[in-house]
Design goal:
The protein has one domain. The chain has 7 helices and no strands. It starts with 15 loop residues before the first helix and ends in a 5-residue tail after the last helix. Helices cover about 80% and strands about 0% of the residues.
Length: about 230
């Protein structure tokens, strides 16, 4: 874990061993990042953590963008790992709001487990596809970025429109987009497009996090329509 990236001059000609090392370190850090995420989520549930929509948006934007800026600045040092783990703890705390909502439903715990299982299977399948085939999926980048922007704009519009069918459509689209982002981001590591495992772990972590959130929302919407 002493080498955080490969010199830029070698990006175009990384040997297989170097790429595999970056991939291993990425997966190692990705797995480690799940521990503070779970800790933050459990703490948030116990604390009944929650913020008003406006205050929550401001807090989230401030912490998220501030953390990502610090991760980018420190990604070549061990401090980058520390900042990333702190960020994932916050993301777990933030996720606790959705988990608390889910647990109000009779089948809430099962829905969370189903979403987690579906996320895990999706990640395993797509990361394996990218790793085994070594196909370059960089062509997906522009399509995914446009799709993500459209979905975000639609989400913001639906805050006022409050159309249930639109919410389901947006979540379904997000599930597809972030599933493909897993393929895209893992492929970048496999093919030498990303040589810093801290940056790579952050990108894939956000893919998994957003995939889980939207998958859980879909499951709750389709199966959790009544409460005790």
């Amino acid at each position: 874990m002493q080498t955080y990236d490969i010199p830029a001059s070698r990006v175009g000609s990384l040997d297989v061993a170097s790429r595999n090392k970056v991939l291993r370190n990425t997966y190692w850090l990705l797995g480690l990042s799940m521990l503070p995420t779970v800790a933050g989520a459990l703490l948030g549930i116990q604390m009944h953590f929650g913020l008003s929509p406006m205050a929550g948006l401001l807090v989230f934007m401030g912490v998220a963008f501030g953390s990502m800026f610090l991760i980018e600045r420190t990604k070549h040092t061990a401090m980058g790992v520390v900042v990333l783990l702190g960020f994932t703890f916050f993301m777990g705390l933030w996720l606790s709001q959705l988990l608390q909502f889910a647990l109000r439903f009779p089948n809430g715990a099962q829905s969370i487990a189903l979403a987690a299982g579906g996320t895990g299977v999706t990640f395993l399948a797509l990361s394996t596809l990218a790793t085994v085939t070594k196909k370059d999926f960089s062509f997906l980048g522009k399509f995914l970025f446009i799709g993500l922007i459209v979905a975000i704009v639609a989400s913001l519009a639906n805050i006022w429109l409050k159309i249930p069918a639109l919410s389901l459509t947006i979540s379904a689209a997000m599930v597809v987009v972030f599933s493909l982002y897993i393929l895209f981001d893992v492929s970048r590591v496999v093919n030498g497009g990303e040589t810093n495992y801290i940056s790579a772990a952050l990108a894939i972590y956000l893919d998994i996090y957003n995939l889980f959130q939207n998958l859980l929302f879909l499951i709750l919407s389709l199966t959790g329509n009544s409460r005790d």
